[in-house]
Amino acid sequence: MTFTRPRRRSAALVAALLGTVILLAGCGGDDENDQGDAVGTTRTVEADNGTVEIPAHPQRIATLGRLTVSFLDLGGEPVGVTEVDASVLDLLPKEQQAAYKAAKLLGSGASEADLELLATLKPDLILFSAPESDFEQMKSQLASIAPTIFFGFSSDWKTRLSVTADATDLTDALNEQKTEYEGKLAGFQGKYSKIIQDTTFGEVNRGSWQDAGMFTLNGSQCSEIARADIPLNIPDLGEGGEERSFEKIGELSEYDVLIYPVDAEGQVAEGFAPVADSNAWKALPAVTSGKALGVYCFGDVSFTRSYRTYSQYLDSLDKALATLATAG
């Protein structure tokens, strides 16, 4: 009988402790669920391979093919890459070169990538660019490793960059580049409004891969940007411009100003040297009057097209057009 009160106290104590345990267990379960939700959260993006479900915030990104340069340009740090041509890599900013060299090299190109080695890196997102036929053959293997975003060689560069930035949480970097480009563009348009309005430009280009005795007129990707965004009066001769023989160099006299390619140091581009050294070129009115302008266009290399590289193009074009005042 004397045990009645103690039993009540014990029962109350046990009930209280049990309630605490249940409460703590419930809280712990909520935390675990929250963490699980955070890790497992996904979203979708649209790419050339349709709607792709990806991690909300991917941490380990592998880049295969030409999207490597696009990702590096945004400040990305890939865990795995395929080879970037040395001639392109050497022109990237030092921090981009360092990020590239820190990644595991997976092969010479997307189509030749070592997918077994890729799997060991445990990426949570793959950025892939190759011919569509190659992607079709590899997409099942890629999907078994990680969600894969695919863009083909003919994809629109602005869309490609926008999706890449969105998928990899680098939209702020893209917006910063875009804002800088748009600011430079507005300044350029104001500074050279009369030249833009009154001048006809011809862009003369030649790559070292072209047949001897041939050049291209109004065909670079930079001329496309200049025509669309500035807009410079560069006649549109269709995608890729028009290939002409050296015998037609004299016909370039119809243009008020000629633009030709130079390298990052301002020297005549190696591929263009045969044109620049020809007597027909040297005799052109634009050349003899100082209205043939060397302009650097890194953004003409496939998949190097970005707001940053086109800002560089505007800088070079600005410097070149400034000489027209002294050319008369």
Query: Please, what is the average pLDDT?
Result: 89
Please provide the ordered H/E string of secondary-structure elements.
HEEEHEHHEHEHEHHHEEHEEHHHEHH
Distance between the amino and carboxyl termini: 119 Å
Give the proportion of residues in helices: 40-55%
What's the gist of this structure?
The chain has 328 residues and is an alpha/beta fold. It is built from 15 helices and twelve strands.
Q: Could you explain the architecture of this structure?
A:
This protein folds into two domains: 43-169, Rossmann fold; 174-327, Nitrogenase molybdenum iron protein domain (Rossmann fold). Helix content is 47%, strand content 16%. It is built from 15 helices and twelve strands. The protein has helices spanning 4-40, 67-73, 86-89, 94-102, 115-120, 132-145, 157-167, 171-191, 193-198, 221-229, 273-276, 279-282, 285-288, 307-321, 324-327, and strands spanning 42-47, 50-55, 61-65, 80-81, 104-105, 125-129, 148-150, 201-205, 214-217, 242-245, 257-262, 292-296. The strands form three sheets. It has a five-stranded parallel β-sheet with strand order 5-4-3-6-7, sandwiched between helices. The termini are far apart. Mean pLDDT is 89; it is low at 1-38.
Using brief descriptors, characterize the structure shown.
single chain; 328 residues; alpha/beta; Rossmann fold; 2 domains; five-stranded mixed sheet; 12 strands; 16% strand
